[in-house]
Amino acid sequence: MERVKKYLKRYFIDAMGAMALGLFASLLIGTIFGTVGKYIPNDYIANIFNTIATYAKAATGMAIGVAIAHKLGAHPLVMFSCAAVGAMSNAMGAVIDGGVIGAWATASGTGEGIFYAAGPAGAFFAVIIASEIGMLVSKKTKVDILVTPVVTLVVGFAASWLFCPLISYVMYYLGVFIATATTFQPLLMGIVVSVVVGVVLTLPISSAAICAMIFSESAYLAAVASGTDEGFLLAGGAAVAGCCAQMVGFAVSSFRENKWGGIISQGLGTSMLQMGNIVKNPRIWLPPTLASAITGPISTMIFKLKCQGVAAGMGTCGLVGPIGVIDSTEWSPLMWVGHVVVCIVLPAILSLAFSEIMRKLGWIKNGDMLLGE
Hints:
The chain is mainly alpha-helical. It has a domain at about 185-373. It has helices at about 1-40, 45-60, 60-70, 75-90, 120-135, 145-185, 185-200, 205-215, 215-225, 230-255, 255-265, 275-280, 285-305, 320-330, 335-360; strands at about 95, 100-105, 115.
């Protein structure tokens, strides 16, 4: 059992956390540059921002590959080779036509149907396999400089070719389900998506990585083809609402313990800082989670906030979630009001109200949300 826990932590907490860092340093930061570039009036400066955005996004697979391999303790040759593995596995996938795989492991759309890249999910699995097997031969021969990259790249290609189409197929149907369900049940799905993604954000796994897989560009194209793109984007907006509820909620409800430092570290950093306290007293998780169950459907039903990609799973971390909403939602006074209300005002008010009620009931005691030094 201990060995199982060790491997689960290694691959689904450590590796996924590293993947989130790789995403942040490439796709996510590129998205920020691209969004800012849209609204810079000076064409020369805007072009600089857009160029940075283009290359940062293009390096997504490579950044994920290096980040995961580094976290797994790979030797330099293995880690550098995993940059190429990450690039190929992020790009590979399948052409899906009418719910059926029409072309296998292609790196670009061919023929009829929609090309669905495995994206970060494909890179996650392929890089882990390539890195671990590459380490089995690394520094074991006198021609290590040839053997290690060859083994790592061949294994990485084989893993990408075998698994990426299957992963893209699973992600395709998951995206179709979320988009369709939100189109027909925006109230219910607003609650479900907001609560689930918000909870994942606070857990020691990466909501950003998961949202990058579910709300990818390929998923959006599939939703457009099925006429459920509105529901798809609304689900992304609900995901942002849930993440913001967790981060802002914990920041405000724990203010008496953590003061302004807690506002910054949780509100602009991560609510994951509270995991140790949640283990001690799970009830402290209720206020922001209840808040997310309210803000999610308000987002989908009233303000109709939209988002896609990795930004859907970032919340107020670096203000990436709100920036993603601005980038995906049509500009209007209602959007700006909803933006402030759903992402900041309501999570703060609701979480504080729920936490104060629970403090009076004795469910939450002073110090239960105190962050360590």
